[in-house]
Amino acid sequence: MAGSLNFLPDDRYNAFITTCREAPFGDGALAGVAVAVKDNISTAGIQTTCGSRILEGYIPPYDAHVVELLRREGAAIVGKTNMDEFGMGSTTETSAFGPTRNPVDTERVPGGSSGGSAAAVAAGLVPMALGTDTGGSTRCPAAFCGIVGLKPTYGRVSRYGLVAYANSLEQIGPMARTVEDASRLMSVIAKYDPRDSTMLDRPYDHQPSADIAGLRIGIPEEYFGEGVDPRVAETVRDAIGVLDNLGADTVPVSIPGMQYALAAYYVICTGEASSNLARFDGVRYGPAVDTRKTWHEAYQELRQANFGTEVRRRVMLGTFALSAGYAGRYYAKAQVARRNIRQDFERALRDADVIAGPTMPTVAFRLGEKTDPLSLYLADILTAPANLAGIPAISVPCGRVDGLPVGLQLMGRQFEDERVVDAAFAYEQEVRR
Amino acid sequence: MKTIVGLEIHVQLATATKLFCGCSTDYRDDEPNTHCCPVCLGLPGALPRLNRKAVEYGLRVAKALDMEVLEESEFARKNYFYPDLPKAYQVTQYDKPLAVAGTVEIEDDEGHEKIVRITRVHLEEDPGRLVHVSGGSKYSLVDYNRSGIPLLEIVTEPDMRSPQEARRFLNKLRTILEYLGVFDGDREGSLRVDANISLEGSVRVEVKNISSYRGVEKALTFEVTRQKNLLRRGQTVTRETRHFMEGRGITTSSRSKEEEHDYRYFPEPDLRPLRVAGWVAEIDLPELPVARKNRFMVQYGISLNHARTLTGDPKLADFYEEVAHLDPALAATWVADILLGELNYRNMSIAAVPPGRIAELLGLLKSETITDAAGVQVLREMLDACAAGRPCEMPAMIVKRENLGKTMGDDFTATVQAVIAANPQAVEDYRNGKSGALNFLVGQVMKETRGRADPRELGRIVSESIDIGEV
Q1: Which of A104, A281, B64, B424 is the most buried (most CB within 10 A)?
Q2: A136 in a domain, yes or no?
Q3: Weakest mean pLDDT among A80-84, A140-144, B254-258, B321-325
């Protein structure tokens, strides 16, 4: 039965940039289910800002493929969630619309960049939400807010309509309170779309199974080493113990390429971003350019005034990394490192069926705690490798440290999203009992 | 001083839809910004989807130019800011183009055959178009109808030695593209050229913004003169980019900052690498100009010049083949020499002429029902009708209406007598052995009879009449 949902949330965590007071819905697998959508996913008729002033007032004339699918299955799109500007951050503090607070502890960040989606789910405002993950942006906030977040295999979910930050790394992914709901949302959004040339026709249609007897779980030493809070590492080891008790076998594996992962990740994502974000020039949408100036001046002033500090920093880094005379030293080498990491995972995933480790090296930061960009970039160390390798990765809550949630990360082979979902589901079912 | 010329040619491929979206490419006469979608407007989140036809067209050209198609080619982003470029990057091909190393055969300035080597061809998207409002307006308008039109960039080696060779190369290339059915030369801006030119031992100058065949020769001729004059005065040529001002026929230096680009090329992450070398074997090339020219000479027994002219444009060659059956030699003369001249004079395309009517006209000429002069008159009436959009009358009807049928000699006796009587000086000259005088008298009779008489026969009648008058 089609109808419309009244959505008047008590948004005390600033999870939403835009809410839809009356959200229409239809029939289908998600009939009448309230779904929040990250604000970098195009929604026809609903403002889509990417958390940036430069897109304020931009109302897309078209729906992203995933939004079309949500509507087709009857979901009520109730709002657009807050995020780090263009996805550039791990705290949702770089949003032009103010930071989102973590519902578990409002003095803490919800993680990012899909912090709004995570907070909306964790606070119970919606049962499920769409996030996007370029270097950990669904898994990090899922871990910090104590919910489930999946980054699908690269090429499994259409990126058509996702405002690009780093095209070769990112995927849209489901976020929910339970693995089952995340899987349900994944079944709706992972359908072939010929408009995304980097996609393969491998739809996800899966009912999670908790039977993991004989599953080989790889434990990479690099995920428990320097920089990882020992209490977080311990919590995650305990969680792996639970899987072990359910009949899984653990095997040690190694990802030696990890030492170059962050450097490679930041060169690639900033390089692609510098190109993707160049189109925001005030000609066709967003705040208008000052036509009394020459166009070069007008562009410069508009971009200076409307991009935040972190976005400008990454655009400049990426521009530099792609410049003549430097591209060989940075961009080309990053591609080599990326290939090495992909091969490391392929090798490790011959000995193991999934790889397990912490999602984040620490629990959620305090608001305003991380001011130095480098220390913030280091927070992506455990999530970005899956994006470089294009493999599926899920974060499932696995306990607390100092009362703050910790996420167990499970990564799998390309197009074996079902397997990481099953492993997460088995853990979740076991600890809920 | 040797002149060295290399060209970069941008050709709009005549696909029905754009390179990366389903928008129609046929926007002629349509309102600005009516052939656009999220993809070609570069809206946030839109993704490119490669047009298979454009790739096939590119491969057709590669095969026709005898090129090597790369096992794996790749699209890349060329980053630069310009208001007509909606994504602020152009999707093009950089270090892995579609195909490399081809050849085109042309005639050099001495009429000998020579080879121009083709360095590479690659696919890319056309940007939109800026429309400058007249009257000193503070803004310009942008039309994105052109944005995303598929372009094939064809790059030559510096193998041409004069502006004339460059023009001949372009004519040849255009003919090949038209034969391949991948290009519509009638479309404004469908072929744009950047030329690199240097005098031997001196630096290279790039001339941009040339948008016609004639323009290339004009721009290069201007550059040769300019560079020679500089060297003659003891000055040096500056290595630079210059813009061709079509209207004034000159090139001017463009020193704007926008020219000093670092395009920051990198592989387009939204498209997969292209592996299409295997498609080449399945491409059936049509008969190309050289083969068709040779066949015309053998099959129809016509001269090299006629064959070359007729095969210079595939539509003209098709036309000829439709009317050649009655008398190939007669048809060649009429199509290549007379009809083509009349079309050029009227700025008409061969497509506007019904071949059936021309075949009928050739029939009247072959049966000697009308004279050549009357044939030209009939042809002109038919073309004027076509040009005005009126139905093209049957030549026989025109002949009847205008009374242009060839008349027997006797009918002209009175006119001949009158002309002889009116031109005693010419008659006198003829008697004194000046052969030109007879032609003059025949011409006078032809004029009076509106070309209906056979000039050879008339010559006989006129000379006989004068001779008889003497007796």
Answers
A1: A281
A2: yes
A3: B254-258
Give the closest of A162, A292, A323 to B264, CB-based. Answer: A323
Q: What is the distance between the alpha carbons of residues A96 and A102, in angstroms, rounded to a whole number?
A: 18
- A25: which strand partners? A3
Catalytically annotated residues of A: 38, 113, 137
* Nearest CA-CA partner of A164 in A61, A272, A306, A70: A272
- Report the alpha-carbon distance of residue A17 to residue B456 in Å, rounded: 94
Q: Does A56 touch chain B (CB under 8 A)?
A: no
Digit-coded pLDDT (tens) for B385-411:
888 878 877 887 777 787 777 665 556
Class of CATH domain B409-470: mainly alpha
Give the pairing of strands A128-133 and A171-176: antiparallel
The verdict on residue A273 lying in a domain is no
Measure the CA angle with vertex B194, ends B193 and B198; round to 5°. 130
CB contacts, 8 Å: B48 with chain A: 197
Rg from Cα positions in chain A: 20
* Region for residue B111 given its phi and psi (left: phi exceeds 0; alpha: psi -120 to 50; beta: otherwise): left
Largest CA distance in chain A: 71
B44/A168 CB distance under 8 A: no
CATH 1.10.10.410-classified regions of chain B: 409-470
Q: Residue type for A46, please? A: I
Residues of B in contact with A274 (CB under 8 A): 79, 264
Query: What digits encode the pLDDT tens for the residues A124-145?
Result: 999 999 999 999 999 999 999 9
CATH of the domain at A93: 3.90.1300.10
* Size of chain B, expressed as the number of residues it contains: 471
How many structural domains does chain A have? 1
Range of the domain at A347: 3-261+331-432
Task: Determine phi and psi for A37, rounding to 5 degrees.
Answer: -120, 130
CA A218 to chain centre: 23
* Chain mean position to CA B419: 46
| Amino acid sitting at position A291 | T
DSSP B355-368: HHHHHHHHHHHHTT
Spatial distance between the Cα atoms of A142 and A364, rounded to a whole number of angstroms: 11
A314 inside domain: no
- B interface toward A at CB cutoff 8 Å? 38, 41-50, 77, 79, 81, 83, 86-89, 138-139, 142, 257-258, 262, 264-266, 269-272
Q: For A27-44, give the DSSP string.
A: SSTTTT-EEEEETTB-BT
**Residue A295: inside a domain:** no
The answer for residues whose C-beta is within 8 angstroms of residue A241's C-beta and 6 or more apart is: none
- State ipTM: 0.94
Which stretches of B126-174 are assigned E, i.e. beta strand?
Answer: 129-132, 140-143, 150-156
H helices of B208-288, where? 213-232
Taking the C-alpha atoms of residue A397 and residue A358, their distance in angstroms, rounded to an integer, is 10
**Residues ≥6 apart with Cβ < 8 Å to A381:** A227, A258, A261, A262, A361
**Closest chain B C-alpha to A107 CA, distance in angstroms:** 34
Strand, helix or coil at A131? strand
Taking alpha carbons only, the member of A158, A164, A196, A136 closest to residue A275 is A164
Cα distances from B169 to residues B163, B173, B316, in angstroms, run: 10, 6, 20
Q: How far apart are CA B331 and CA B360, in angstroms?
A: 11
User: How many CB pairs lie under 8 A apart between chains A and B?
Assistant: 105
Confidence band (pLDDT; 50, 70, 90) for B257? Answer: very low
Q: List Cβ neighbours of B442 (8 Å cut-off, separation of 6 or more).
A: B455, B458, B459, B462
CA distance linking residue B162 with residue B107, whole number of Å: 12
